[in-house]
Fold each of these.
Amino acid sequence: ITITAQPAVIGEWDKFRLEQVVTNLLSNAMKFGLGKPIEISVSTSGGRARLSVLDHGIGIDPQHQSKIFETFYRVTTGLTNNIKGSGLGLALVKHILDAHGGSITLTSAAGKGCTIRLLFPTLRERDNQTKGNS
């Protein structure tokens, strides 16, 4: 696992829930990454915190990408039949992101790995929104 992080990514987030997010994303990357490197990056972009997790594993076929964050949805192919899971991990990630005012995107292709990018409001973005609403 390689981690690249900017020194000051500041926000008000639920620490326990963010731990769940990172744990679920890493768990999936390890399960489906075929033992290849996993890259994690933390940065800011446009006043938002960005967390990206990239694996170089089996990837996700486009037909499954829109459903992968649904509760109990599991991709079942010959490559994934022996991989255990409940289909709750990524649904929980999306739920937590929604609760934090964040968003999630996925870039993948079968056999090409997967990148999941999360965007969270930072303190700066939240403060700017508050000033604009005053």
Note: The first helix runs from residue 15 to 32.
Amino acid sequence: MRIDPLAPPAGTVRDWLDHHAAHQGDRICYLFAETGDRLTWAELRDLAADIAARLTGLGLQPGESIAQMLPNGREAVLCLMGGLYGGFRVTAINLVAGADAIAYALDHSQARFAFVGAAQRPLFDQAGLAAIVALPVDGRVSWPVGSRAGALHDISPGDDALLMYTSGTTGRPKGVVHSQASLLAGGWTTTLAHDLSASDRALCILPVYHINGLCVTVIAPLVSGGSVAMCSRFSASRFWDQMAAMQATWFSAVPTIISHLLHGENGPSAETRARVRFARSASSALAVEVQRAFENRFEIPIVETMGLTETAAQILSNPLPPGLRKIGSPGIAFGNQVAIIGPDLSPLALGETGEIAVSGPNVMREYLKNPEATAETFTPDGWLRTGDLGRQDADGYVFVTGRLKELIIKGGENIAPREIDEVLYSHKQVVEAAAFARPCTRYGERVEAAVRLADGATVTTDELVRICEDRLGSFKCPDMIHVLDELPKGPSGKIQRLKLAELTDA
């Protein structure tokens, strides 16, 4: 099975695991940083097939949900691949979403069984859903007494494969459904953009219950035939040592992680600098000043990208060096099509600002049991509306200006929070920054911002306000800047801007 730059991968996850087991079965595909455990392609396929057969023996039907409440590690990989190999809909539960959201996802998914880690058992029990049977996982799955393996179901590319709930800031989470085909296409877009091969090794530091960690650093190596070094969680103090020990050639992160690495004391060895081809930034906009400072300090290029849960991660990416990277843009489309549309959903001219829409094989099937939200998300001709605002230049590069729901509307004028973020990040003592709207009687909304400062920082909020006023003018300048120990984040590390007004309310 070869990678075709013009067509998404054929077949299913089962087909790709079988292929790698047959053609490079002795080759290592997974290493686990904390335990030193390793898996070859043959071992991964055999263990996944066993889990799939045991699930079938429990009576699970093709496309039926099997929930997974596991942190990054060997067990998470095996249970994920086992569910996909068997043709079931793996329901990835966000472990930091909170008890209410977890209970909702378990109930809404209609899962009858769940893989649950020992540390996650209290969260599972708190959901109080007696209809779901836990399959405890602590080194190996504890199957019900008397259960037996069953004959595997026939599966096809169009069958459901993944259910992942969005971490929305308003209302109930929506369950994004991906097929075997769209899940593989998500790994394919990453493989194309970054020219991944069997010789590449990703360091997975993002949780696999988030679309970035799952599709970019798990499914992409499945498509490319490369390998994955997986960490249980990101650690700024251990990161560069892990990159060296695991012999990784690339990693995917989010802007907050990149900023923490930039402000850390440690750095890569000369050998690591030479081996690492690129760092990848996704999930939210990377501040221009942070990208430049990171590259200047560590001599590792950052490839900025953009993706969604609904598109199995990546839709845009900058090309690898020596290709043209446009700092401040998440790049061009790889493996799908991107357009900028207006309020009437028709395409806009180059340079005009509108909503970013995407079409391609990596787009989700639907929101589970939510036809109204599904219909609202797709245009009549099948383009998925991302909710992000941006413009496209003559070279096809997209520049994101903000989120429709996050725009600050002051006195009837739209202000993109990212403009303010960029200015705040330009100060070397600012580690995290996010502007947000605060309701007010005079303008409807006013501008405020929250920052996390580096240890030992001396800059004052008054100084940061003056910098914003000098760069942006008084109208866009924050009326107040709050200093927090930590800004609220979702599971991928993306700052949850819409929570800041409530969090900083005096």
Note: The chain is about 30% helix and 25% strand.
